[in-house]
F-box domain-containing protein
Amino acid sequence: MKNIVKYSKEDADASSPFSRLPDEIILQIINKLIDLKTLGFCYLVSKRFSSIVLQVDAISFTVPFIDPNIPDKNTVDDVAPSRPFPPMVSSFFGESFLSAYTFLSKLKGVKSLCIELASFGHRAIDNRCLFKWMVKFRNRIESFMFLSPHSVYDKDGLSLSGNGDEEEENLVVHGMFRRNFEISFQCLEDVIAWHIMLMDIVKDLPMLEEVSITDSGRRGRLSLNGEKLIEVKEWVNSASKAEFNRVEVPTVMSNGYIPLLKLPVSGYVMKGIYFGIMKMKDLEGGNEGLMNIEDASEDKEEAAYTEAYESGTDAKFN
């Protein structure tokens, strides 16, 4: 009976409209799907589809929030991991992400990849809390910058967002320092896990031309492309196992408070700014590892934060 059912299914597949299309046309259609979960379903349709899906060159997927109190069972049981992630990454993202990544690592032709992660490192923080971070990196994290303004105004003086009533600002400065200090370290922990993942991605996807990892709250982003990606690829392919698995963490930290920061390029004004800067020890004594922000954005507010990073660094080191 099973053989009859199987034959009927194959016969139906052979008579479907898709069966009349050449592989090249199907690939063009599938390439427009982009979403990794949808591609996973296509991969399971048939042997022909699975071979075509493996040729896609653009992928995007969102990793859902993982509740530690709920078992994470959303996995693909028939896909064995090609290489286990370090415990730090595995514990942060859950089994469903690891299963998705294992499927992703099979798509050796991927050239463009975008991953959106939940803001896992600071789940207890109110989403209205203002902060963003930026990082400069290659095969290691060179510097990490965290910035949290009390309030932000556009060039017309309109308040875009804030961490509280302006008249309360002076009362919360000291408490803000402690809170933001803790959040900045949580974000750095996130960045370290992301960077570990990013190095694995570059190692597993040889055709990659651009990759971006961001979080659902748009707090920060790690991205590689162009010469920067080429440089990282060369290191990944030449590094020993010990070098590849070594995790280096910025150890030199400074922080401060800027009451008012006017940003001439964007026209934005930020008030009550806490900033934290962490650097590798071999970069101590200068701002070479902090300037020339590489992850520029066309978003006006993000561009204003980028300008604020550079202005804050100038105020700190000059």
Notes: The longest strand covers residues 252-262. The two ends are 80 Å apart (CA to CA).
